[in-house]
């Protein structure tokens, strides 16, 4: 199966390991990976700050980049949800609306793609320890992917996923919110980190690089012995 | 209390919220209790999503036909012998209510809980003309005797106070001598209020929903105070936001069920009262005179705009109770009697962007509010629309941000520029980098690195790795 990878700009620039893990896991599951070089950012930082016109340029670029892809797969619930939002952004735009709908229909978050399209629940991964899983807001509430990550993690040998109190609360990332409302964001991430630390988990696992950079950054600042890992990295552990 | 509360700026309000440990403990405790209860009450119905869609449909239908239903409502109230006044502004509403009270030579006013009378600052207007105005909802009463402390939550106005603080207010203001036990606190207030109810000559209520077909108004409470407000005084004045109307009892039932389950996780509240006009000849109790004041105060300007769905709101505060921002800053930080996500959407619409321009940004867009709303208001999307208006029409966004976003638009849209930018990022950031992270970031990163590490850009980007790997593949 041919998969066109949408790496996301955060993974491309800051979390390249997540991109590598995504490629290796999908290849192991029999996919052939294509990475179009012309991909940029999905436009979310500008869009979510109210700069809709500025956001449309990278969005158009992304639509062009992925127009011939069969399956667009991304290791991010938030960026996948942004692609799903494109039809609303270009509503009524004769030139772009249909193309936007077409891109949105073919977009999958990584765990969703593995479970729902490849129909695989056990990717043959192994990781010893206990983990708390962060259910990121956009993945669950906008993309409605709630079970797939847990289904995959359940089959990771040696790994026990422990319940995370207050799991429904946002980690405080929110893109530009994290700097624009830094003082509020700090309180939110601090509470999240304290909940994670209370579980005594060895790992914090999440499916969105943004949340992981946020929570992981706070864990590192506090010097806590918790390792943050992206779902793709966990699935690629052997 | 007008809609706008406090004189501090947004940052100061947020700071004092964050530093208020008592308030934060009270709010997070309440959020956790209400979260579980709301989910259980919704689950119990078995088909919550259908209920929500039905609720949304009812509210949308009413808003699309608001003129028709308000007309029908007014006609039916008048038929019953009541009076109806359409108030375009807060001032119009207050002037009318003052006139009614003065005509009756009324002095003693008892009120049940009403957000719209807070919005129009009715109490101050009545006190100016010599009325003694008493709030009889326990939460509102606590705030009123505590030097008019503003409400911090649309359902539980005194949510920001714990029982020890309430005991202290009672000690200071009422000469209370007992403990912080809620039963004792409540019993003490009940003694005081009973006496006041008996001597009141005007009763003022809000209105959860008015029923157009019958000319009725409904009140949803847990304390029964609204029933005393509407049965003892000879004159009753009900003040409602113009959008709070339903066609018939059938829709009332659906919305009340959505309201009580979403607000407090109850199937029904202790009292759900429906009142139809003044006392009729064959009736034994009720007010002799009934006035319905229908308040616009900026609402009709929202109709027909991209923000119309905010008027679907039934004031349950489910969005407030799940909001992680509200959880940490509390209601007063919003600077409006309408706090939380609904307040962040509604306050700039009713009060203007000048006073409330920060509120649409006080959200991580986590969408917990949108998920919780029983009438499906897309709250986080409306916050985004506000941001767009602020940037494009109001011109209130900072210039530095505008430039950055302009650059983002150019940079992110051009693969060449993007590749170049991301390529040089590690060296551009190297003066701030120790190992793999940045502890003291420049520019906008400063706000981040005050509390968190930020990762240094990867020297080998993912795209470089992918490309080199392809080349290796070609070689072998």
Automatic annotation (TrEMBL), chain A:
One term of GO molecular function: oxidoreductase activity
All residue ranges annotated as the Cysteine-rich domain in the record: 3-84, 132-215
Coiled coil: none
Listed InterPro entries: Cys_rich_dom (IPR004017), LutA (IPR022822)
UniProt-listed Pfam families: CCG
Domain of life: Bacteria
Gene Ontology CC annotations of this record: cytosol
One record GO biological process: lactate metabolic process
Family label: Belongs to the LutA/YkgE family.
Purpose of the protein: Is involved in L-lactate degradation and allows cells to grow with lactate as the sole carbon source.
Protein name from the UniProt record: Lactate utilization protein A
Species per Swiss-Prot/TrEMBL record: Peribacillus psychrosaccharolyticus
GN (gene name): lutA
TrEMBL record, chain B:
GO BP: any one term: lactate metabolic process
Residue span(s) of domain 4Fe-4S ferredoxin-type: 310-377
Binding site for [4Fe-4S] cluster 1: 313, 316, 319, 373
UniProt feature coiled coil, ranges: none
InterPro entries for the chain: 4Fe4S_Fe-S-bd, 4Fe4S_Fe_S_CS, FTHF_cligase-like_sf, Helical_ferredxn, LUD_dom, LutB, LutB/LldF, LutB_C
Residues covered by region (Disordered): 435-476
Gene Ontology molecular function: any one: metal ion binding
Keyword terms: 4Fe-4S, Electron transport, Iron, Iron-sulfur, Metal-binding, Repeat, Transport
Domain LUD, first and last residues per copy: 70-295
Positions with a binding annotation for [4Fe-4S] cluster 2: 323, 366, 369
Top-level taxon in the UniProt lineage: Bacteria
Residues in Lactate utilization protein B C-terminal domain copies: 386-470
Biased composition (Basic and acidic residues): 449-476
Family: Belongs to the LutB/YkgF family.
HAMAP family for this protein: LutB (MF_02103)
Role according to the record: Is involved in L-lactate degradation and allows cells to grow with lactate as the sole carbon source. Has probably a role as an electron transporter during oxidation of L-lactate.
Official protein name in the record: Lactate utilization protein B
